[in-house]
Amino acid sequence: MSSLADFQNEIYLNGLGDALPALPTDLTRLEELAGAKLSAQAHGYVAGSAGSEATARANRAAFDRWRIVPRMLRDVADRDLSVEVLGTAMPSPVLLAPVGVQSILHPDGELATARAAAAAGVTQIVSTAASYEIEKVAEAAGDGPRWYQLYWPKDRELAASFLARAKAAGYSALVVTLDTFTLAWRPRDLDQAYLPFLRGIGVANYYTDPVFQRAVGGPVTEENRDAALLHWVANFGNPSLTWDDLAWLRERWDGPIALKGIQHPDDARKAVDAGMDGVIVSNHGGRQVDGAIASLDALPAVADAVKGRAAVLFDSGIRTGSDVVKALALGADAVLIGRAYAYGLALGGEAGVRHVLRCLQADLELNMALSGLTRPSEIDLDVLVRDR
Ligand SMILES: Cc1cc2nc3c(=O)[nH]c(=O)nc-3n(C[C@H](O)[C@H](O)[C@H](O)COP(=O)(O)O)c2cc1C
Ligand SMILES: O=C(O)C(=O)c1ccccc1
């Protein structure tokens, strides 16, 4: 019996703002509140997307074109939202997407997120561009489930070092992000000439790495700081990678691997052919290709192409429980949230992320139960109609 929905009664009985953070329970309202709290630069970085932000808007609009058709009298008393994805047990089909540079949101950054995720048993995907070293994030997570997200650097030795460190620190699965070998045209950041890395945020996992240090002639200090930054810029991404390069990765990581940024069914098939265990249907929250298809619209064809052969995860635009139901109905096994928890972190640190997780999971369970659904495995296309 799931207890994720108990949060609803807890709020009614005790209220928000006493023991619980006084944050809205409608997670779509967090962005605006975070805007009032964060610097214009940090808010622009997180809330912003690529170009005219057409894809970011399309991501949200796509959810609105589907409607859930609730079913009655189905005995939904016994509910269980738990799933297992890539060998990891989860209380619900919700994970925390890799979000780098979290110290621009809150001084405790990924450490606060790790504590909140671990307390909920929710899987945190930790970015190569985290503001804290992945070993320290792992320590904050304790027994909490964690996956590692690789930004595949040009230097193969550095990539190998990242993988070895992630393995040693207990990250159980690998997520390889393909859609961001370089940052897109992002007007909000360009207009403010703002990049976290130029301020030394998001480079901790590079600067403390022995392979990186060898390349810049020792530990990064005041003296070689500019050289280190140039080396980071030159190495962050590799635009010349092809599908053939995945064999190298497959040989060096013995756990599950998922490719993030898949939008075309042929790419999903190629991922399976290359021995990958999962795909993450994502357009990076609209932050990369402006004018790209809404991620939800890309999901059904990708799921059709590989379902049963690979885990299908989804992100870009998830804000509510009904969004999760729709993504699962359209073929996802689980979803990732990005900005939703990033704003929680900005507004309330660890408690803010915990709040977001509790709200989203309670909303999801109630939405499912009231629709006649007790388990994620019951959610399929029959649950939805296209809104005309
Ligand atoms: C501030 C910010 C930083 C991000 N950093 C990373 C990252 O380091 N690695 C990565 O794979 N994706 C990164 N993403 C993309 C997220 O993993 C995810 O794909 C996206 O946020 C999903 O869309 P949503 O924000 O609408 O949930 C980032 C997103 C944001 C908003
Ligand atoms: O901003 C992003 O979307 C992103 O993915 C990223 C890339 C490098 C470092 C930090 C975040």
TrEMBL record:
Residue stretches making up the FMN hydroxy acid dehydrogenase domain: 19-388
Cofactor: FMN
InterPro entries xref list: Aldolase_TIM, Alpha-hydoxy_acid_DH_FMN, FMN-dep_DH, FMN_HAD, FMN_hydac_DH_AS, LMO_FMN
Keywords: Oxidoreductase
Keyword check for Oxidoreductase: yes
Family listed: Belongs to the FMN-dependent alpha-hydroxy acid dehydrogenase family.
Name this polypeptide is given: Lactate 2-monooxygenase
Organism the protein comes from: Actinomadura parmotrematis
